[in-house]
Design a protein that fits this description.
The protein is of the alpha/beta class. 44% of the residues lie in helices and 15% in strands. α1 crosses α7 and α3 runs parallel beside α4.
């Protein structure tokens, strides 16, 4: 039996940058190719696995560690894991890379102005009005990856172009 190699593909970037959109597109393509794949979405996980965590630095780190733990379990069992979460801190992303091993960091890059324009939930507007505290990109820091494995510049490329970049990296590294 030909067993698939597991890998965690960690999509990081500001709210509204396009992380979930690209992860969903990659998920669809991998499922068409009959890959074993699981999508872990940060918004959904905050309502379940990470319920009760706030947005302080300590809570954000704990949120990432919990998601990373699940991603690691799936990865070591041959699943391609697509994680879509802001994950603002470089150090914890690097810690997760070391722990998981098979790890691809995808920086979904879009300027704050573009993210605000795309914001259907009105989160940026609420953050600027002081209704949401510790909002990444407004009053909480986002540490840009220094050497991401893939960078998707979603203000300059289509969803299809970004998706192809991720799939090409997975193929190049022998995961698909």
């Amino acid at each position: 039996m030909n067993q698939q190699r597991g890998v965690t593909v960690w999509f990081t970037g500001l709210s509204g940058a396009g992380k979930t959109t690209i992860a969903n597109a990659v998920d669809r393509e991998l499922k068409i190719a009959a890959a074993s794949v699981e999508l872990l979405d940060g918004d959904e996980l905050r309502q379940t696995l990470c319920r009760g965590l706030g947005f302080s630095a300590i809570d954000r780190i704990e949120n990432m560690r919990r998601i990373g733990f699940v991603a690691h379990l799936l990865t070591k069992n041959g699943v391609i894991v697509l994680v879509s979460t802001i994950s603002p801190y470089r150090e914890i992303r690097q810690e997760l890379r070391r722990k998981i091993g098979d790890f691809i960091e995808v920086y979904v890059n879009a300027p704050v102005a573009v993210c605000e324009w795309r914001d259907v939930k009105g989160l940026y507007e609420q953050a600027r009005a002081g209704l949401i505290e510790n909002f990444t990109g407004i009053d909480a820091a986002y540490e840009v990856p220094l050497q991401p494995d893939v960078e998707c510049q979603t203000d300059r490329e289509t969803i299809a172009q970004s998706t192809i970049k991720v799939l090409t990296k997975l193929e190049k590294l022998g995961y698909i």
